[in-house]
Amino acid sequence: MLATKNRNPLSAEIKNKVGDILLPLVYTVTDLKSHVKLAHWNLRDPDFYSIHRLLDEVAATVEKGIDEVAERARQLGKVMDVTPSKVGEMSSLPPFPKGLLNRSTACDALLKSLNGTVEGLHKSIDECAEIGDAISTDLLTKVSGELEIYLWLIESHMV
Ligand SMILES: [Fe+2]
After folding, report:
1. pLDDT band at residue 1 under the 50/70/90 scheme
2. How far is the CA of 4 from the centre of ligand 1 (A)?
3. What percent of the chain has pLDDT above 70?
4. What is the pLDDT of residues 123-134, one digit of tens each?
5. How far is CA 89 from CA 25, 106, 107, 118, in A?
6. CA separation for the pair 83, 27 (Å, rounded)
7. What's the rounded Cα separation, in Å, for the pair 21 and 12?
8. Domain 12-155: CATH architecture, name and number where available
9. How confident is the model over 60-84, as pLDDT tens digits?
10. Domain residue ranges in the chain
């Protein structure tokens, strides 16, 4: 068995509690990425190209967020188990619509998924702050801020 102890100076109790907050976020943000890619691929709309390209940017930002949150959880001693079936089981997001999507349907569904993710991040930011992990609090605040920009940009495509 590989060692799971680490030299992070936070107490074992704080590391465990914060790790348990971060793990569900990794599943949810991974699910968000799949929603962004579905909209990126399945969009069928006169504004296809600009939204398709914007969603490439969103997917890259979401991917960075997944990596940063997962790596913070690893720093606190948690081990990743982010398989597609586990994401389906653990994500807190609503299912994404199937089939081709026009701009309105794609943007509306993506805003629901983004909003659900950001709400989860806000709750976790407060919890990490209360527990006393400033680094995780700061990381989740940064990730949420980066995603909230896309709430605005995507919403601005809706009439
Ligand atoms: Fe692509």
Report:
1. low
2. 37
3. 97
4. 999 999 999 999
5. 13, 23, 24, 19
6. 9
7. 14
8. Up-down Bundle (1.20)
9. 999 999 999 999 999 999 999 999 9
10. 12-155
**Rounded to the nearest whole angstrom, what is the distance from the C-alpha of residue 61 to the centroid of ligand 1?**
14
Could you tell me the distance, in angstroms and rounded to a whole number, from the CA of residue 60 to the centre of ligand 1?
Answer: 11
Ligand 1 midpoint to CA 50 (Å): 12
Which band of pLDDT confidence, cut at 50, 70 and 90, is reported for residue 7? confident
> 60-91 in b/e burial notation, b at 16+ Cβ within 10 A?
ebbeebbebbbebbebbbbeeeeeeeebeebb
Size (the chain), residues: 159
Separation of 55 CA from ligand 1 center, angstroms? Answer: 8
Contact 32, 113 (CB under 8 A): yes
Hey, which bits of the chain come out as E strands? Answer: none
**100 CA to centre of ligand 1 in angstroms:** 15
